[in-house]
Design a protein that fits this description.
This protein has about 180 residues and is of the alpha+beta class. Helix content is about 30%, strand content about 15%. About 35% of the residues are buried.
């Protein structure tokens, strides 16, 4: 009758409770979150991808710790309009264990996927794969300057995507037409 709780984080909502507007990609503001680790297990990126536009927010942290992840999520979301942040769907990693503190500060609900179901956050998983073109698993992120990482993020946000009718995530997210 014992239920194992070690290594598990308390979750607020499951993905099955997520609003239909997030599931159907009807509006901007529903985000998927993850971390992308470097070779050494030192520095990593916190990645946030908007489900509708595929727009990427990302930032480097020194270590994959819940406190640093929480602070980086808050910092990244403070760079965009409040109206463009409605929900977050992270993976079930321990680095997201301080999700309730993010919710408390920014009033954004978290919806957790089923265990071992990365396809339920496929937008972010795909984006992380694109990040790996610039930052392969074999490379440590410790020595890479934040300015270089910012350039990689910018390149991904300005990359046209077939799923967006060959528009860029930037164009969809900011409702602007870029003349490339």
């Amino acid at each position: 009758g014992h239920q194992e709780k070690r290594g598990k984080i308390p979750i607020s909502h499951t993905i099955h409770e997520r609003p239909e507007s997030a599931n159907q990609r009807l509006e901007i503001g529903h985000w998927e979150a993850d971390t992308v680790a470097g070779k050494s297990g030192g520095s990593c990126l916190v990645t946030l991808t908007d489900r509708k536009s595929r727009y990427l927010l990302a930032g480097k942290i020194d270590k994959k710790l819940s406190e640093l992840v929480k602070n980086k999520i808050i910092e990244l979301f403070q760079t965009i309009e409040e109206t463009k942040v409605k929900t977050i769907t992270p993976d079930r990693g321990k680095e997201f264990s301080k999700h309730s503190e993010v919710t408390e500060q920014l009033h954004i609900p978290f919806y957790f996927p089923d265990p071992h179901a990365p396809w339920q956050r496929g937008t972010n998983e795909n984006t992380n794969g694109l990040i790996r073109e610039y930052l392969p698993k074999t490379q440590s992120m410790d020595e890479i300057p934040k300015e270089i990482i910012h350039k990689y993020i910018e390149k991904l946000n300005l990359r046209p995507k077939k799923v967006l009718g060959w528009k860029t995530p930037y164009e969809i997210f900011f409702d602007e037409v870029l003349h490339l």
